[in-house]
Every structure is written in structure tokens, then in C-alpha cells.
Amino acid sequence: MKKYSLSAIIFLLSLNLGYGQQFRQVDKNLDVFYKLNPSSKINLFFNQPNYIPGDTAYFLTRFLNSVDFKLIKKKSVFHLLLVDKAGHKAFDQFLLVENGLAPNQMVIPPTLHPGIYRLLCFKEQSNAQELVYQQTFEIPGGSKDSVVDTVRSVSIFPEGGSILEENENKIFVSVRPANTVRLNVLDDSNKQVGSFKTNSKGVGYFFLNPKSSQTFSVSAVLKGKSIKVPLPIKKTNGVSFKSIVANGKLTVTGKVFGFHGQPEIVLVRNDRVYYAEKIKLDSSQSFFSEISLGETLKGLFQLWIVDVSKVLSSRTLYADPGIDNEILKVKHPFQSHPRNKIEIQVEKNDSLMRGNFSIRIYQKSIFSTKSKNIFSDLELSSDLFQKSLLSQGEVAYDSINDFLATQPWQRYNIDSLYKGKFKVKKPSFDQGYVIKGKCTHVQNLNLPKPTNVTLYFENSNFIEEAVLDKNGNFSVELTKPIPLNEKVYYKVEANETELIDAKLEIANVSNILPAIPTNISPAPNSYFSYKTATDSIQQSYQYFSSESKLPIPVGKAKSLEARLYGADREYNMADYLAFSTMKEVIVEIMGKVAIKKVNGKSSVRIYLEDLNNPNPVLAKGEPLYIIDGIPTHNSEFFLNLKPSKVNKIKIIWKGERSVLKAFGRNGIIIVETKDATSTVNIPALNYFSLTGFSTPLPFWSPRNLTDTRFPYFRSCLYWDPLLPFDKDGVSRISFFTSDDLGEYMVDIEGLTADGAPYSHQSSFTIVPGK
């Protein structure tokens, strides 16, 4: 295998000045491209193949360099979305990945309808979200929902890009909808000169040696519709070749017509030129090359045929990398009984080897979905995904290189890269969670300057501020994660005066992808049937064995009040005679609070004091009321409270109110009632809801199964996203088998610190007995 570093390739190719200059430029362009466009991949490994509504889907996120599969250990925020077949967001959450690995879970909403969904992962960028991962995510039910391709087409792809006269050309054909179809090759008189079949993925090929005066077409009947497609115009110059990847070798045969120089073959994988050689043409302009791929040129790579000025032809190829099964040794029993404790030992062959490995153990018979190994998932799912779901899954079959002949290279335009012309994309790491929004409902869009937005995050208990631009837009990057369901109160001010009518609209992703047509057919799913039955049994036992429980009391929110370190004055209502109204309370005992009429309504004002100006000044606006932890500016609600139902009232008029920024500008009144239910209907401040970060939860496993009265059914017996190893390189796990009989899969996947993928599959069987 000829693999060259940049310096070595320059030395070898400098034997021919034009040749050396040419590939120095290719390597230089590749180097520049990847520095400006850092190539990364996302890999998600789930604890079982399928889920139904209400399930918790545990998974591990790996954030990797696509060149060497090493972890990218930079803080990155990812937005995970589940999108239905109509293209609408069904569920979403954010993931924070700080060291390249992030275990987490996704609770499938119980209200989701079974069917075809798409799981998307976006990387948060400074100006936009970049789609970095997508896969089909089927949620099974009592029927089968299948994607229907409404497009009926036949597409032609000559290998090498050209159909040459007086030459045998290999011509690939792709049909939609993907299916096994017989196609006919017709000459210019519509006479059939040949026929061939596509495989189940709709890809096939045939060979053709056209004469100078001949034209050809391909015809087929797709879903009752007759389609006839002419072959691309044949050429007297160009490149036509046939490539075969087998037994660790790449064989290329073909012809090059109409070029005066001596073309070269170049093999490129990610950011390295792995192989380069001049093509030796015989008297008929034909060539033959057999290249050993070795151990490093595996997975997806590019075959280029180039001359001094441009790329003449190119295509993507795939070399099966295989998986190194000698990284770990896995030991477990091959047979056991229900409710027995099983121990599995995973041992490193090299105790000093570093890496990350995940294990899942699940029932084989109830899942029909087959999982790809980690390498094929990393190589094929990330680099070749299309925005259309219809291309998903088409790459996982034996004739992968036939399929690749019909696909353009997704990462960059080859001709542009060869010529050094490509768009610059700035990388973005250490990007936090960015909230973007717009201020609306303001009559005059020419907002006064500056116009400020103050945000209070209730569950996280912190405050952020932003300034609106001339169009009313704002953006806030959070420095720490927020919980999955966050409530954010806001206040919009100009010149320290609240804009009462101002509303904030938060940029929200709702329509993600175009809708996809599906066909529902009666085909019960084995996992759906199993889960429905076992959940019903277990819920019945829980119902008849459960004790009656007291209702959970309504709690009082304290987060906003907790930000304050104390009040300037506290009034314990039990220390006073009973008052009939809150107005009477203010007049009789609250010297720092006044009531005044504003637009015919009673309004409350606090006399404020500051360090720089100790003389009391009457506030310009309503104070912030925190009533049982709920913030409001509604004086009418406060004044209508019954003093007999109030425990305490605290007043803050000094500098401590600045802790709450704009919210505390006009002073703060904190009210604690005797019964929190009395404030259920409080007119709270304006707010919006945010989807935040999901906090990783442990996978539950029982410590014992001594009570045999209760059934124990589980589709997944064990899950550990990050196997722990001791100093000798050994990991021991144990778990209990369930009441189900049958075969169970032991799947282990991972990557070494050097980026070497590992995948292990074995099984054990649960049989009757004790």
C-alpha cells in the first residue's frame, strides 16, 4: 500500500516537475479545506433497536473527528429532534457534550402515534444550526407504516462519467421507487438489444460498446408507468473505467481519450492523498491498474483520474474495514434460567489500551430491526445522508459500491477543490446554548435606544440581559445548561420604563423537513405486541398491590426569592390585629409603601433608597411582587388578597433589589400566604418556555428478585454506555434475567483512543428451570 505523508508525496512527485506541482497543490488544497471545514461525525448507540410511545430510549452520543474517529474533546451543544412524517417537530432536547462522550436518554412521549419518524441532530453554530446526523426512527404499533416513494424515475450513471465510442462502458442505473425491476436497453430504432435487473435497492448496471452512429435508451415500467430515458451523449474523448474492490485490492480498467498529457490515478481519503500514480496507456489508450489498499485505506475513499489542469473523472468507493475483534475478550454463560443472576466479564487484551465501550443486553426475538456495526454507521450514515429520508438505509447492503456509483460526493465539490476554489466555513466549538428571539407587539418598530430585555430562568434561578437591535431581534448565549423544561420570565424596558405591550417570540424549529408519504398496512410488530402485553400485566399487579396515597400538597416556589439575601423590612401578620383589606395594611403599617391612583386604578409604589442617594424617592412603576414564589407586577391582584390568608410580607427598597436587575428596579414585595392554592390564578409576568438540556439518568436494574409474586418482564436487561475497567483492564457486570424465555443478545461497541472501532455480538439463552 502506497500511503504518503505530505512531505513524502512532494518528494516522490517532484521527480516530474508538473506532476509534483500538481499534487502539491491537491494536498495543499485538501489541507486548507479541512482546516476551514473541520470534519466531524456523530454516532448514537441505543440500548435496544426499537421503542414504543412511553419508552425511555437510553443512548450514548459520540462526537468524533471523521478523519481518525478520535473523540473531539471540546464543549459542543447538540439539538436532538424527533420529527414526524409530516415534517413537524414531535419532541426535542439539548445535549451538552464536553469530552466527546455524552450518555443520555430520550423519553418517547406517550401521546406519540406509532409510525415513521426521523431522528435529527443539529450542532449549535453561532449563526445557525448545522445538521450533523439523521436516521430513520420507527416507532412501531399495531400496523406497519412504510415510506412510499412517489417519484417514478430512471437515472443513468456511466462509471467514469462518460460513454465512449468503440469502448466497453459500464453503465449504472438507479430506479425510483427502489425495487427489483427489469429494464430494457433499446437502440435508435427501439429494438431491444439487451436487458438487466436492478437489485432490491433499485440499482443495477449493464455493459455497452456503442458505435459512432448509434444512440441508445433504457426503458422500464414503474408502478404501471412506462418510462424511457436516453443514454447520455456518447463522446469521442473523456474517461470510462470499471472499478472493483475485492480481497483488499482496487482494480481499475478503462480508457482515456482526447487528452495530450499523461493522466494520473489518485486515491483520497478525508484529508490525505493515500496513493498516486501515472496511468500507463497502451496503443489503444487503455489502462489497467491494481492497487493494494492495505490496512489504512478503509471505508469511504475517492478515486480521481486527473490531468494537469482538472479532474477528468471521479467516484466514491468503499473498502470493507472489518472489525478488530481482538481488542476485548468477552466471557459469559451461554445458558441460564429465569430470575438468575448472570455475570459477564469483559477484559482488554492489552490492559493499557484506552478507549470507550458500551454494552447492551436485550431480547433478540422481539426486535426485527438489525443494527449496523459502529464502523458502517460512522462511515455510511454520516457522509452519505441526504435531506430526503428515501435514501436512508440504502447503503447497508452487499452491493455498496454499485450504490455509490450513483451518488455524488457530499463533502465537497471535487472540481472546485482541485482548483482550490471552495467556500470557507468557520468552525464553531465551545458554543453555548443560544436563545434567539424577536420583540413584537410594539406599535412603533423604531424602538428607542437602548431597548433592553431581562430574562429570569425560573428553574435554573439565574438572570440574563440582552439589547434589542434596530429590528427588535436579540440573542443570548447561556454560560451554563438549563433543565429540560425551563420557564423564562421576561421584561422589556426602554429608558428604564417597561414596554407593557412588548412580547417576545422565540425562534423555534417547527417544520424541519418536507413531509414524506407513507403507506400503512396490517403488520403487527413483535416488540409492540410484547411491550403492550407485559406492560398491561405489570400494571395490573402494581394496581392491586399498591396502597392508597395521600394527595401531594401544592408547593410554594422559592427560587426567585432565594436570589435575595434578605428584606429591608419584614411584617409577620400574626403580630397585628386583623386587617380587612391589603390597602388598610399598607396605610397602617407600611411606611415605605404608598397607594396612588393611575388612570383611575389603585396602584402601589415603594419609596426607594440607593447607596448614592439615601433620600427616599417614589418609584416610577409598580413593584415586583413575589407571591408564593410567583412573580407579577399586578397590583390589583396583590390588593385583593385577604390579609387573613397572609403569613408574611417582606419589603425591599434598598440596593438589594438590584440583584434582580430590571425586575427589581421599582422595589420588591414578597408575600407568603397560608395556602399556596389561593395564588393558583395569579397573573404572572410575561414568560416563554424553553427546551433545555436533558440530565443523564441511570439505567435501573433490580438488586434482587426475591418476591416471586410479581412478574418481571424487560426488553433490555442491561445497559451501560461507558463500561468501567479496573487497573488490570477487566470489567465485570452482573444482572438478573427476566421471566421471559428465549435468546438474548450481548452487544458491545466502542472505539479505542486511537479511533479503532470495535463491535462484538454474542448471545445466551434463557430456558425453563431454576
Question: Which characteristics define this entry?
Answer:
single chain, 770 residues, mainly beta, 5-stranded antiparallel sheet, 9 helices, 47 strands
Your description of this structure?
With 770 residues, the chain is mainly β. 34% of the residues are buried. Helices cover 11% and strands 41% of the residues.
Short description:
With 770 residues, the protein is mainly β. It contains nine helices and 47 strands.
Mean pLDDT: 82
Judged by helices, strands and strand pairing, the structural class is mainly beta
State the end-to-end CA separation. Answer: 56 Å
Total number of strands: 47
Itemize the secondary structure elements and their pairings:
Blueprint: H1 6-13, H2 17-36, E1 40-46, E2 56-65, E3 76-83, E4 89-97, E5 101-107, E6 115-124, E7 129-139, E8 144-147, E9 153-158, E10 169-176, E11 182-187, E12 192-197, E13 203-208, E14 216-222, E15 225-230, E16 238-246, E17 249-257, E18 264-269, E19 272-278, E20 286-292, E21 299-306, E22 311-319, E23 328-331, E24 335-336, E25 341-348, E26 355-363, H3 374-383, H4 400-404, H5 414-418, E27 433-440, E28 451-457, E29 462-467, E30 473-478, E31 485-494, E32 497-498, E33 503-506, E34 518-521, H6 526-545, H7 559-562, E35 569-572, H8 582-589, E36 593-598, E37 601-608, E38 617-618, E39 624-627, E40 630-632, H9 635-639, E41 646-652, E42 668-673, E43 687-691, E44 716-720, E45 730-736, E46 742-752, E47 757-766
Parallel strand pairs: 24-47, 39-42
Antiparallel strand pairs: 1-2, 2-5, 3-4, 3-6, 6-7, 8-34, 9-10, 10-13, 11-12, 11-14, 14-15, 16-17, 17-20, 18-19, 18-21, 21-22, 23-25, 25-45, 26-44, 26-46, 27-30, 27-33, 28-29, 28-31, 31-32, 31-43, 35-41, 36-37, 37-38, 39-40, 41-42, 46-47
